[in-house]
């Protein structure tokens, strides 16, 4: 990094900041960025998009009203929230959003579908809805949460599944037929609920 002081963006703020680094094909560092506010911002996943942008998932334990002159979407509630960012290749913030209810809300690794949507697994805790359009339905300690974004980082839809114990989703991958596969974990949720009317994540889903 010392060899690339000329190409640094931003500066360390406080607590733990997210660090973004870009390399060329030979492994040479091109540029890097500090992205953060007060408190802690911790990365959880990254995806290079076909549009040329970069989608980053992270956690934050404080509100982040503004980054790189961009005002956040969403609302910080309390505790740990999900922070999603769209960057250009140089690490400049193009758009970002905070998503969460009360308690700890943490993301997994984002994946781009063959249609260009970004899907983000994670967990929602405790029994609270993200908004009035899609009420929290299952009442577990943690529920599996999957969010869908467009390539610009705008939220399109989300859904949660789970049982009476702790359930979470951590990773996914697109399939060749246009679908997606997911993996996660369930802690003794024998009543795990996988179908919720109105909570589909298809292109026409409004919640």
Q: Describe it for me?
A:
The chain has strands spanning 8-9, 18-23, 29-35, 41-48, 54-60, 66-67, 70-71, 73-74, 81-87, 93-99, 106-107, 111-112, 118-124, 143-149, 155-161, 166-174, 180-187. It is mostly beta strands. The strands form five sheets. It has a five-stranded mixed beta sheet with strand order 4-5-9-10-8, with no helix packed on it. Strands 11, 12, 13, 14 and 15 form a five-stranded antiparallel beta sheet that branches. Residues 195-207 have low confidence and may be disordered.
Order of strands, main sheet, comes to: 4-5-9-10-8
State the distance separating the first and last CA atoms: 43 Å
**SSE sequence, one letter per element:** EEEEEEEEEEEEEEEEE
The portion of residues assigned to helices is under 10%
Poorly predicted ranges: 195-207
Kindly provide the radius of gyration, computed on alpha-carbon positions and rounded to a whole number of angstroms. 17 Å
Task: Assign an overall shape.
Answer: globular
The largest pleated sheet is described as: 5 strands, mixed
How large a portion of the residues is in β-strands, by DSSP E?
A: 35-45%
Count of separate DSSP helical elements: 0
Provide a brief overview of the structure.
With about 210 residues, the chain is mainly beta.
Summarize the helices and strands and which ones pair or pack.
Layout (H helix, E strand, L loop, with lengths): L7 E2 L8 E6 L5 E7 L5 E8 L5 E7 L5 E2 L2 E2 L1 E2 L6 E7 L5 E7 L6 E2 L3 E2 L5 E7 L18 E7 L5 E7 L4 E9 L5 E8 L20
Parallel strand pairs: 1-3, 8-10
Antiparallel strand pairs: 2-3, 4-5, 5-9, 6-7, 9-10, 11-13, 12-13, 13-14, 14-15, 16-17
């Amino acid at each position: 990094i010392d060899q690339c002081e000329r190409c640094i963006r931003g500066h360390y703020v406080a607590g733990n900041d997210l660090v973004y680094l870009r390399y060329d094909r030979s492994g040479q560092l091109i540029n890097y960025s500090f992205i953060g506010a007060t408190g802690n911002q911790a990365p959880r996943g990254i995806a290079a998009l076909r549009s040329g942008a970069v989608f980053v998932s992270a956690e934050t334990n404080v509100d982040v009203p503004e980054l790189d002159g961009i005002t956040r979407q969403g609302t910080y509630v309390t505790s740990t929230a999900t922070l999603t960012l769209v960057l250009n290749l140089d690490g400049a913030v193009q758009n970002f959003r905070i998503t969460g209810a009360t308690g700890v809300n943490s993301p997994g690794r984002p994946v781009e579908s063959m249609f260009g949507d970004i899907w983000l697994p994670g967990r929602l805790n405790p029994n609270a809805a993200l908004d009035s359009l899609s009420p929290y339905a299952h009442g577990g300690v943690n529920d599996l949460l999957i969010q869908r974004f467009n390539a610009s980082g705008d939220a399109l839809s989300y859904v949660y599944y789970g049982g009476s114990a702790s359930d979470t989703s951590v990773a996914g991958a697109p399939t060749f037929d246009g679908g997606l596969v997911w993996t996660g974990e369930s802690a003794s949720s024998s009543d795990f609920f996988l179908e919720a009317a109105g909570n589909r994540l298809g292109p026409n889903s409004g919640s």
